[in-house]
Amino acid sequence: MTLLAFDWALLIEKLVLIAVIVFGSLGIALYTTFAERKVAAVLQDRPGPNRAGPFGLLQPFADGLKLMMKEEIIPNTSNKVLFILGPGLAMTAALMTCAVIPWSSHVELFDRKIELQIADINIGILYVFGVVSMGVYGIMIGGWASNNKFSLMAALRGASQAISYELAMGLALIAVLMLSGSLSLKAIVGEQMADGNYWNIVYQPLGFLIFFVCALAECNRTPFDLPEAENELNFGYHQEYSSMKLGFYLFAEYVNMIMSSAVMACLYFGGYDIPFLDESTLAPNVAALLGIGALLTKIVIFIFIFMWIRWTIPRFRYDQLMNLGWKTMIPLALANMLITGALILWKTGV
Amino acid sequence: MSITEILFFFLSALAIFSAIMVLVSRNPVHSVLWLIAVFFAISGHYILLNAQFLAIVNLIVYAGAIMVLFLFVIMLMNLNKESERNKHVWMKLAGAVSGGCFLMVLVSLVRQAKDFQEKTALMGTGDIGLIKNLGKALFSDFVVPFEISSVLFLSAMVGAVVIGKKE
After folding, report:
1. What is the pLDDT of residues A138-159, one digit of tens each?
2. Alpha helices in chain A (DSSP H)
3. How far is it, in rounded angstroms, from Cα B29 to Cα B81?
4. pTM (2 decimals)?
5. CB A262 within 8 A of CB A295
6. Disruptive mutation site among A125, A126, A128, A322 for chain B (greatest number of B CBs within 10 Å)
7. What is the C-alpha R_g of chain A?
8. What is the separation of C-alpha A125 from the centre of its chain, rounded to a whole number of angstroms?
9. B131 closest CB neighbour out of A122, A133, A137
10. Which residue of A has its CA nearest to B130?
11. Confidence band (pLDDT; 50, 70, 90) for A126?
12. What interface predicted TM-score (ipTM) does this complex get?
């Protein structure tokens, strides 16, 4: 059989890895919804969900069950195919990012060296951008197919917001790429782990700030949650959705949060690097497990900051949002890029 | 057939089918979505040719940005199939004939051109499409056209701002 002559072991390895990472992300997202409610409760000085199971730990399953059991309503006047495609696209785009994130170094199992990254492509971070720009379609198609004025307005807002902040995000990223000289996330993390190098946050504090604000906007999190501003748009682009299709939209937001936290951790905070520890002195498997732990810790900290911001800061007005994006973020990112480039030239002495 | 060939034929079939669906769909929003599928298939071809950078830039720029603007316009104008006026049968016939002639010219051009003869595509082996080589070529051999095109983009941006600005 020459038809299918390729490394089956590699295929199985990758499939297992994909399954673990996708279900792991969904599991974390499940408990992120719980954490959101608990953090909100702490910040507002109330107990939060505490009835389902010990400390309310079964709450996300109760929520999920409720969403599944609700009646599924598809409006008469909507475009049925696109109405169903919308939440699916949102979820797919959210999950696709995880393919290029290096979750840790490699483990050695069954005499194989297994990289804990689904695909180390040499355009890694651009792939993330490509997927993020696909995420807009989930919102736009869902909002338009609902055939509801509020949904359409929210979808247009969401899409223009995402496009506006993608620009500043890309410009902030260019400075990081100048430092590391590679687009592969694994190489960027490796660069930060190398001896004598610090994490990129040391070299790029302004760049990180810009990237973080843009990540908030891309995830539609407060203060940038204009697409679901309920006091002007009722409920936003998913107003006509019910049951698990609504659940997919809400869930995709949490998956997006996890993925953008992971990307930020890799770009600016050393990815799976443990501070003040030389991983090469450890056995590879131990180092890999500790690395996963380190990356997850960084992700959890970022998610907490996302939530902290959500329950502290009120929402922007739409013109404020656009002014911030185009008149503050983009000039700042450009200046950051120029300064970084000049400093690199000065240091290398060309 | 190797995996590459299977992928090539699959992507080609996908591209042609989606392109036909772009034309056949009555609903303009469906047309735009099928056009995005065409871009995905073409990006797949780029990846087969080992031009990863081109592939992803094609997706980001065309599928991610330009098509979103198309969708914006179509959604805001709310074009529906009812609003599409029926064209006369002679119009359709004339379109088919002229389109067919154009296709024939293109095919004969590709078959006879010296540049295309006795050349095979580098499947997965060429490396000019990788970002490092592409960047070096753009900033050394093609630096003048590259910079001129950037000035062109700048003038287009300024023009858009001037037109969009209120009095």
Report:
1. 888 888 888 788 888 888 888 8
2. 8-43, 59-69, 80-96, 124-145, 149-180, 185-193, 200-203, 205-218, 230-233, 243-268, 284-310, 318-323, 330-348
3. 10
4. 0.85
5. yes
6. A126
7. 21
8. 12
9. A122
10. A122
11. confident
12. 0.80
